[in-house]
Amino acid sequence: MTPEPQAKANARPAAKPDITSRGCLRELVNAFYGQVQKDATIGFIFNEIAAVDWDHHLPKMVDFWEAILFRRGNYQGNPLIMHAALARRTPIGKEQFTQWLALFCATVDDLFAGPNATHIKNCARDIADVLHRRINPPPGAVPVVSAVPLASPDVGS
């Protein structure tokens, strides 16, 4: 083997970048929701039940994650109200939140590595846990779902 091919064979793959900008978040959001749309467990919730307008939803999710990760941006919305309204139309339980989180973390890991990548996965885990608990409270507790109108203007945001 010549030195050049040997060097290539021993070369480590390039390190993945960390999430450092809105552009990185756009890449993450687009890749993640591309997976969501095809997913057998949760895709139908987005595609059929919520009938998400992806041209509207994706930039809004970039805004959301920019606010979460970098504490800046233009996010306007209330994820709890949107998910609670959606939960009145279809079950959104542990299985769905677990799948959402698995897809999100796998997408982050496919694209990024570093402190911000770790932080966004931890934030996603916390958000999924809170939304799940508020939408699916323990027996005897009043669910948030009962306080939310059935029709909501931007379900899925």
Keywords:
Globin-like, mainly alpha, 62% helix
Provide the CATH topology: Globin-like
Main β-sheet description: none
Superfamily (CATH H level) name: Globins
The number of helical runs is 7
Approximately what portion of the residues adopt beta-strand conformation?
under 5%
Count of individual beta strands: 0
Terminal CA distance: 55 Å
- Named at the architecture level, the CATH assignment is Orthogonal Bundle
Report the helical percentage. 55-70%
Question: What is the top-level CATH class?
Answer: Mainly Alpha
Radius of gyration: 18 Å
User: Which class of secondary structure composition applies to the elements?
Assistant: mainly alpha
The chain-level mean pLDDT equals 88
Q: How many structural domains?
A: 1
Ranges where pLDDT stays below 50 over 5 or more residues in a row are: 148-157
Overall shape: it is globular
Write the layout of secondary structure elements.
Blueprint: H1 3-10, H2 22-38, H3 43-49, H4 54-70, H5 79-87, H6 94-111, H7 115-135
Quick summary:
This protein is globular. Helix content is 62%, strand content 0%. Residues 148-157 have low confidence and may be disordered.
Structural summary, described in words:
With 157 residues, the chain is an all-alpha fold. It has one domain: Orthogonal Bundle (Globin-like). 62% of the residues lie in helices and 0% in strands. The chain has helices at 3-10, 22-38, 43-49, 54-70, 79-87, 94-111, 115-135. α2 crosses α4, α2 (22-38) packs across α6 and α6 packs antiparallel against α7 (115-135). The longest helix has 21 residues, at 115-135. It is globular and about 60 Å long. The model is unreliable at 148-157 (pLDDT under 50).
